[in-house]
Prior knowledge:
two-stranded antiparallel ribbon, phospholipid biosynthesis, EC 2.7.7.41, single chain
Amino acid sequence: DAIQPSHPLSSPSPLAFSLSQHQGIFQLIDSSHQETDIDDRYGDLDSRTDSDIPEIPPSLDRTPEILKKALSGLSSRWKNWWIRGILTLTMISLFFLIIYMGSFMLMLLVLSIQVKCFHEIITIGYRVYHSYDLPWFRTLSWYFLLCVNYFFYGETVADYFATFVQREEQLQFLIRYHRFISFALYLFAWTHVTLLITVTQSHLVIQNLFEGMIWFLVPISSVICNDITAYIFGFFFGRTPLIKLSPKKTWEGFIGGFFSTVIFGFIAAYVLSKYQYFVCPVEYRSDVNSFVTECEPSELFQLQSYSLPPFLKAVLRRETVSMYPFQIHSIALSTFASLIGPFGGFFASGFKRAFKIKDFANTIPGHGGIMDRFDCQYLMATFVHVYITSFIRGPNPSKVLQQLLVLQPEQQLNIYKTLKTHLIEKGILQPTLKV
């Protein structure tokens, strides 16, 4: 049979291939010559390589000696299991103690966690920047932290402490020119990324806390529940890897953690919705000079009757069920905590892998650093804040009062008369008798 010539484009001749090779070499030489000219003109901006960056020393084992001796006969796998379990129960116990101590202590806890997470991330960044002999890196990092905290929490003081601010002339000046002062401080992007992760998210956590402690406890406990149950299911039943960034995470742990978290969130929402201490917005009362959580619970935290779908009516043998509307919202919060929340951990895992480290720090034996425990919490805080502003939040009395206090006396008097007339028409106030 005769051999049919192929299409010239599909099979180039040796001559054409040789010419194209030479042409590519000439272009490479020409581009290299241009790059050499640029380097000669501007100098070598950065001649360092990854090998010049010092390696991070291995983390110290901070496990208490009493635990080391008690668990010395176990394998490393079971030893880690017991260390994580004991420290987890200890942290949960301390967390309940702080809840008992009130909202102000919870705010201090959030701020402390923010500072520690910032310190752990900055310490990793210091490894890179220190190798380039950049001065004042740590000092500037903490200065930026102070500036951003001043900006965010200055807004919070203006919103929730309006009455107190009105009594202090120095605070009035700071609040009036707050944003300008913040901008001036911030004039003097590793640090900025860290601030975005830690300060912004912890600010949202405290904003959620002001809406009611339940908006803080249910989301944060759902993430903790998901972390614990996913670890337990993965430890005993895990066989299928979930994602390469976190080799220890498995599909079995992911699915088991999801169902456990939704059930836990639903039950926790039912229990906490019964108490004003958890459901009332946190407000600062100047007359008692402290935070108070007393109110008439909104409809969100009052029992309602709901008709069951047909398939549940047959199973439960009842037409309706009574539950708090917040329990329905808890399903959304728990679902996010178990399905989307873990991706905050995946991002942190990729971040640590890029720097070839196992944990952000070794603050908590068996767990790593504070940032290792709160990587998912920060993503959850953003979701809760958006959820509240989108579906829950109504008018804020503190902000309305703040705006009223800065009006002229005549304007305040007109608003008072209008509000009084409105309350009389609704029957809330009795009309005064004219003599």
